[in-house]
Amino acid sequence: MPTVLWLGLVYAPLGVLLAKALAGSSAAAPGGDIPFLVARSAALACVIAGLAVVIGYVPARLLAGPTRHRNLVLLAILVPLILPDYVLYYAWSLLLSPTTYLGAIISSNQSLARVTSVVSSLTVLVLWHWPIAALIIGQAMRSVDPCILESAAIDAGSRRAFAYVTLPLLRRLLLLAFGVCFVLAMSSFTTFHLSGARTIGTELAVLYEQTFSPAVVARAAWPMIVPAALVAVAMGAKSRWLHGFTPPQSDTFMRASVWHWTAMVVLVILSVGIPVALLIVSIDTVRPFMEFLSLHLDQLIWGFIVAWCTAIIACITAAGVLHVVGVFRSRMAGTILYGIVFLSMFIPGSLVAVSLLELASLDFMPDWFRQSFLIVSLGQAARLTGLVLILFLLGHGLRHERLVEAAGVDGASPVKRFLHVHLPASWQLFLCAFMLVVMFSIAEIPATMILLPAGLPSYSQLLLNQMHYARDQQVIASCLVLMAAFVAMAAVLVFVLRRFFARAAVTALLLLGICVTGCDRGTPTALPDVYAVFGTTGRGQCQFMYPRAIDIAADGTVFIVDKAGRVQHLDADGNYLGDFSMPQTEAGKPTGITVGPDGNLYIADTHYHRVMVFSPDGRLISEFGRLGEGPGCFIYPTDVAFSGDGRIFVSEYGGNDRISVFSEKHEFLYSFGSPGDEDGQFSRPAAMAVDMSRKLIYIADACNNRIGVFDFDGKIQRYIGRAGTGPGEMRYPYSVVLTEGGDIAVCEYGNNRIQIFDVSGRSIGVLGRAGRQKGELAYPWALAAGGEDRLFVVDSGNNRIQVWQL
User: pTM score, two decimals?
Assistant: First the structure.
């Protein structure tokens, strides 16, 4: 029954969606470059898979070696999978930060920086995929009679024996290992996304957010479904190779030399040792660790809740598939069922996610399903059940089958056979499968970012955002805490399973999965009086692709910049007046826009390390700043503000984390602030607001979770707020403005709300909550204060602007 339900929930909507895609327009994704992206992605995936197979051959040889070493080798192969690929990429990228000597050289040359990013992502993905290749090749080697290989080595020499005997015997399973790594690399999203490389995987992951059209995603995904289906069929056909294999008695051929063990140690050091060491030695302050409980504990808890539920669904489904195949006792049935499960593992997570959204949109589906974490768990389980099935097949031996048959003859029900035979014989395997699914689930991005209901905390999304916006100390703390949580979870599960053994442990896990559905997601804050809402998703007039900055001109019209690199000019009611695009957007998009006293637009062109000045109609007037750490240089500028007496303030992050002050002629005057969390220091200053009457500047110190109040000379006056989620507390304030009434409005990206403070710093109101309705927010990024005490809120995650009446 669980298997039938799972197949219906996953494949029924997927089949309907693909049928709709075929019947609809043949147009692909926006931009029309899907064929080019497919070709590029295939080339990159070939490189990754080929190197993973070559590198994985040495650990595979050790895995197929003497039994006394096999557990140690298996542990060494599995350990690198603890680090998600994007955590591995981030750790290595610490060596290439613009603040390092090598990073400064690379960042100064855009072409060199792009090549370095792609090469870095390829290297990291090879380091992450080689364990997968090693597991498949190692099992293949164990199926080869070592006497044949030994005789060939004696007669023809080791090299000729390898070329003419070993490779022909293993070629099919080497191709299978290559195919598995290839399809996984083809759909890889996060590492390529962080490196700035566009692939079909990165395009699919954001395509739904750009179009809100599942059919467009399905049409674009067709080139990836074909290789995934071929590999899934091959895996299904080879399931008998995985199922109940008894290793050969002789280990003669599998004896390893010193260089094999040396290569294995080097691989583990590169894949785990050095990245973890880089994270640890990069710790500059313990403050992110101290603030973790108030800032991110809810995200970690919900991450584990979703992951545990995912693991329960995946384990039950995989066990059900094995049971069904056992009942039919048909090789064809096994090939088909196993192939179906493996297919859902290999197709892009974004495709599975949009098909589930189509299912959730049906009228008869309850709201609790649409808005709960269960839909996220189901989407993740669709991809991870194949992993559990592989592990179960490896541990499902002949002796195990005979015990199950004997229990069936004695009249034991399927449930009793599971509790009294399956679980006692394979609880270690169940533990391994459960833990691997939990780890992969917490780190999963493509399906999660599409299925996650607004306001539901997500640890994987937290990590991705922290990495993308260079919150170095926060990223390091989050990564190390996650690894510590994995170790603690493993220790607790081992203790529980050993102490209470099979039935009590499984009952506890299932009860936990059921009980967490009643967990409270927090107390909603007050909803504001919404004056107007305008904007939809898209690239047309008054449409946005994740808007990130806004300002209001003297005539009441607004200028908005989004992640498409487009600046739109709208009136106060959202009517289109014009637009223009930034001259360069490949490296990244702007995060700040300010209408200067002269009426021109000052845009913080963040990833090009400069401030650009445009006329209101989009004509470039001037620019200032360049990459560097010296006076007048920027790393990642975020906002521009004006003192009213001729001074121009520019905030920046990425290593300088300071405020630079320029004259009206763009001549550098002075700067204040430095990276850190002490008084007068900043961690990603994201926005500024100027109080000309009091000669004060309010700075949203985003990653220190506070608003710094400075005088125009850069002397700290006081701080407003602290880390947290309650009134008077903040979680990643991304914008700050002064309202018409003289209060201070703060946009909290991490808390999905707007908080109002009086001039003394006392919280006098908390407005908004996470959601999609009017007055609700999804990752708000920026604010602008208009006349009649109205507040323009950039509701980034909903691709709209909300105008609130205070």
Answer: 0.80
